[in-house]
Write a structure and sequence with these properties.
With 514 residues, this protein is α/β, with parallel strands linked by helices. It is built from eleven helices and 23 strands. Helices cover 25% and strands 25% of the residues.
Length: 514
C-alpha cells in the first residue's frame, strides 16, 4: 500500500540516521561554497541534542542559541552587505562545523518543470557557454529530483562554484539569467535549481493550501483514487513493458523502427502526487533566505487550465507564507507558441494556461510575466532557446527588483471599450509607444459577437497606447490566442512581444475540470 509519509524538516535536515542527534547537523542547503542573501536576516538552522548550546560565527557577527526539546535549533545573523571575498562560518556545539568559501550576494530559486530543468548543455549555444562558464562568483545548487517518501542517509545536494563542469548540467534558463545578473550587478550570485520535468503545480503546493479550497481539493483526492488503483495499474504497466521489450527486440532484429515505450501512468509517478515535490524539494530549503523565484511551468496542467487560474496564485502564496520573507519577487515564464499553427481562431487549453499566467501576473503583487510567444517551437515542447528566456527574466529583475529604470516587457493589455463595430483597447507598458514589431499590419487579433464565434479581425494602432479592432457586432477581442499564433507582432520600443490576452471571460475547453 502506498502511504504518504511527510518527515519533519529536522529529520530531513540530518538525513535520517540512527545517531542524527548525537551532534550538530546542518541541512544540505547550508554548506561550503554557498551564497547568502545580502540585506536580509540570515537564518542558520539544524539539529543537535535537546538543550545543546549552539554558537554561530560569521563575518564578525556571533550569536548563540540552544536546541529545543525536539533537537531543533536556529540562529539569526545579519543582514550583511554583499561580500565577494570567500569567508568561513563556524557552528559549534558538542562538535564543530566550519563552512568555507562562502559569499554574500543575490540568491534566486529556479523552479518549475522540464523547461526549467532543461540543461545548459541541451540549450542553443550551450557548448560555447559551457566552455566559458568559469565564474567563481556564481554558485550553483542543484536540488536532487527525489520525491521518495523515505529519505536515504547521505547528502542530497551541495553548493558548487560555477565551472564548465558544474554549469553543463545546470538549468539553461537559470544559468543565462544568473550570468547576466552577475554581469550587471557585479556581486556574487547564488542559483538554486529545484525543478522536475513533467510536474504539475499541485505537486509543488503544500497539502494544507490545496485542502483549504473546494476547487483544489480534487488534487488531493486523486491520490486516494490512485492508491486504490495502483496494484492493478502496476500489473498492467509491467505487462505492457514486457510486451514492449519483446516487440522492440523483434523490430530491431527485422530492421524496423522500435515501437514507442509505454508511458508510465500517473498513478505510478510519485511526482504527480499533490504536495510530493513541495515536501521533498522545497520544504527542505526553508527558511534559506532568497531574493526571489523564477517559475517555468504549466505544460502539465494544460488539461485543467481553468483550475490553474486558482492553483498558481495559491502556490505562490503558499511559498511566500512558508518562507516567511513576505511577498518576495516571483517571475512567471508564460508558455511559448507550440504545436501546428491553426488557420482560424481557436479555443485551446494551452492558450488558457497562458491566460491563467497572465491573470496571475495582474492579480498577484510583485510578480512578473515573461512572454515567450515568439521563441517557441511548433514541434517541440522544449524550445532550445533558453538564452532569451534568461535574458527577459533578467530584464524584469533589473527593473522591478533592482530599480533599474527600463521597460522590461512588451505591451500589457489593460482595458477594452466597445462601441458599434469596433473595440478600443488600451495597454500599459508601452514604452515610447505601441508599434508593429515587423512593420507589417497587426496580426492575430480576433473578434466575436454575442454568438461567441471567432473571426480574424483588422487592427490598427492609434496614438501611443491604443489599438482599434474592427468586427461586426464585436463584444470580445482576443490576441495571439491560438496555441501557435501566426507571427503576432504587437510590440513596443523594446521589441519585446505583447502577451496574448482576451477581453472575454467565456468558459474555455477545460471549464469544470478538476
Amino acid at each position: 500500500m502506498f502511504i504518504r509519509i511527510v518527515f519533519p524538516l529536522y529529520v530531513l535536515a540530518c538525513a535520517v540516521s540512527l545517531d542524527c542527534q548525537a551532534a550538530v547537523f546542518l541541512p544540505d542547503i547550508l554548506g561550503d561554497n554557498m551564497v547568502l542573501q545580502r540585506s536580509r536576516p540570515i537564518t542558520i538552522w539544524g539539529t543537535a541534542d535537546p538543550g545543546e548550546a549552539v554558537h554561530v560565527a560569521f563575518l564578525g557577527q556571533e550569536t548563540s542559541t540552544a536546541a529545543d526539546e525536539h533537537g531543533r535549533w536556529k540562529a539569526v545573523l545579519g543582514p550583511f552587505e554583499a561580500h565577494a571575498q570567500p569567508a568561513s562560518m563556524a557552528i559549534t556545539g558538542t562538535n564543530r562545523i566550519v563552512l568555507n568559501n562562502i559569499l554574500v550576494g543575490e540568491v534566486w530559486l529556479c523552479s518549475g518543470q522540464s523547461n526549467m530543468q532543461w540543461t545548459l548543455e541541451q540549450s542553443d549555444g550551450g557548448e560555447a557557454a559551457i566552455q566559458s562558464a568559469d565564474h567563481p562568483q556564481i554558485r550553483l545548487f542543484n536540488v536532487s529530483r527525489d520525491v521518495a517518501f523515505k529519505r536515504k542517509a547521505g547528502k542530497l545536494a551541495s553548493w558548487e562554484a560555477c565551472t564548465p563542469a558544474t554549469a553543463r548540467d545546470f538549468s539553461g534558463v537559470g544559468y543565462f539569467f544568473g550570468l547576466e545578473l552577475y554581469q550587471e550587478l557585479g556581486i556574487p550570485v547564488g542559483l538554486v535549481n529545484s525543478s522536475y520535468g513533467g510536474s504539475q503545480a499541485e505537486a509543488w503546493t503544500p497539502v494544507a493550501y490545496l485542502a483549504a479550497s473546494e476547487a483544489l481539493r480534487p488534487c488531493i483526492e486523486r491520490e486516494k483514487i490512485w492508491e486504490a488503483e495502483r496494484p492493478r495499474v502496476q500489473a498492467s504497466f509491467d505487462k505492457a513493458k514486457e510486451e514492449w521489450k519483446v516487440a522492440s527486440a523483434q523490430a530491431e532484429a527485422e530492421g524496423k523502427p522500435i515501437p514507442r515505450e509505454p508511458r508510465v501512468p500517473d498513478a505510478l509517478r510519485d511526482y504527480r502526487i499533490a504536495a510530493s515535490i513541495y515536501d521533498n524539494m522545497i520544504a527542505p530549503l526553508l527558511p534559506f533566505a532568497i531574493r526571489g523565484a523564477l517559475w517555468y511551468q504549466g505544460e502539465s496542467n494544460e488539461e485543467r487550465a481553468e483550475q490553474y487560474e486558482l492553483l498558481l496564485p495559491t502556490m505562490i502564496r503558499s511559498w511566500r507564507e512558508r518562507w516567511g520573507q513576505g511577498d518576495f519577487p516571483f517571475a512567471i515564464v508564460q508558455l511559448p507558441n507550440f504545436r501546428k499553427a491553426a488557420p482560424e481562431p481557436a479555443d485551446e487549453a494551452w492558450s488558457h494556461i497562458r491566460d491563467a499566467q497572465r491573470k496571475t501576473f495582474l492579480q498577484v503583487p510583485k510578480t512578473g510575466l515573461i512572454v515567450t510567444i515568439d521563441i517557441g517551437e511548433a514541434d517541440d515542447i522544449h524550445p532550445t532557446n533558453k538564452l532569451d528566456v534568461g535574458h527577459r527574466l533578467c530584464l524584469w529583475a533589473l527593473s522591478e527588483v533592482y530599480g533599474r529604470s527600463a521597460t522590461w516587457t512588451g505591451p500589457v493589455f489593460r482595458k477594452a471599450r466597445f462601441t458599434g463595430n469596433k473595440a478600443i483597447l488600451t495597454f500599459d507598458e508601452v514604452g515610447a509607444g505601441l508599434r508593429s514589431g515587423d512593420g507589417a499590419p497587426l496580426r492575430t487579433f480576433a473578434t466575436a459577437g454575442a454568438d461567441e464565434q471567432w473571426h480574424w479581425a483588422r487592427a490598427t494602432i492609434k496614438g501611443k497606447r491604443k489599438v482599434i479592432v474592427w468586427g461586426d457586432g464585436v463584444v470580445a477581442v482576443r490576441y495571439a490566442f491560438n496555441n501557435n499564433p501566426d507571427r503576432p507582432n504587437l510590440s513596443n520600443d523594446t521589441g519585446l512581444p505583447a502577451s496574448p490576452f482576451r477581453t472575454d471571460n467565456w468558459p474555455g475547453p477545460t471549464a469544470g475540470k478538476r
